[in-house]
Specification:
Blueprint lengths: L15 H25 L7 H21 L3 H13 L9 H18 L3 H20 L8 E10 L4 H12 E11 L3 E6 L5 E6 L4 E10 L5 H9 L4 E10 L5
Antiparallel strand pairs: 1-5, 1-6, 2-5, 3-4
Organism: Neolewinella maritima
Pfam family, one: DUF4956
Protein name: DUF4956 domain-containing protein
């Protein structure tokens, strides 16, 4: 693994040029990873601090590996010191975690002078990221809609609703089903006195679905198809970006 044999390298006391070369090499390769992340990420939530972290964490990993060398005692000491630090930054997107681990791996490989491993792995990782970016696995339609329907309390209406969604939705999931309680509305008389009116909704039920549209379907088609259902009292549809979480 240690394919750096140009200089006389002592793991316990690494020289200045060895440390400088490994740190600069980790900086170069992690910069390639950060650029690849920038070019292959479709989400607009690309923070500059995260891109900087991808580069800097690789250099930190290389520095730690140089400090440890071949000493088990140093490794245990650094492990104990790092365990004191509580990292509270949450990476909800598994893809971001993957890029962070790739940058860490490059720093570790460069820190132990495994330059061939670091360079080859970085090039293959970046190439794979671009291939996945251009493949069907990189889906543009990441919007997930929340669909709420108020219909009469009839058992067959759920099957009718889901049959309509099958035509326009690639995926859907029933999130909530509830029976509606009477609704109270506050109005005012001509004299300005408040009057509370109670609207009975005992014959209504509300379905809440999470839906994802088919690539060929539109929101207008989905709405028009659902409005044809007999017994539909109210229809609400809201689409938003939902982050993938581990």
């Amino acid at each position: 693994m240690l394919d750096f044999d140009v200089l006389n390298y002592d793991p316990d006391t690494p020289g200045f040029y060895v440390i400088l070369l490994s740190t600069l090499f980790s900086f170069f390769l992690s910069s390639l990873i950060a650029i690849t992340y920038q070019l292959t990420t479709k989400s607009i939530y690309r923070r500059a601090h995260f891109l900087q972290a991808l580069v800097l964490i690789s250099m930190v990993a290389a520095m730690i590996m140089q400090a440890i060398g071949d000493s088990v005692a140093r490794g245990l000491g650094i492990l104990g010191a790092l365990s004191i630090i509580r990292f509270r930054t949450v990476l909800d997107d598994p893809r971001n975690i993957t890029f962070m681990f790739a940058s860490l791996g490059v720093g570790i490989a460069a820190g132990v002078l495994g330059f061939t491993v670091a360079l080859t792995s970085t090039l293959v990782f970046c190439l794979a990221a671009f291939i996945l970016y251009l493949s069907p696995l990189s889906d543009n339609n990441e919007l997930i809609g929340e669909l709420r329907l108020q219909v009469l309390k009839e058992d067959h209406l759920r099957a009718t609703i889901e049959t309509a969604m099958d035509r326009y939705c690639r995926d859907y999931e029933l999130e909530k089903l509830r029976y509606l309680n009477p609704k109270r509305m506050k109005n005012y008389t001509e004299q300005g006195l408040p009057v509370v009116e109670e609207i009975s909704r005992e014959d209504l039920q509300e379905f809440t679905y999470l839906v994802r549209l088919r690539p060929s379907a539109t929101l207008t088609e989905l709405t028009a198809g659902l409005e044809e259902i007999e017994g539909l009292e109210d229809l609400r549809l809201n689409f938003q970006q939902r982050q993938t979480k581990l």
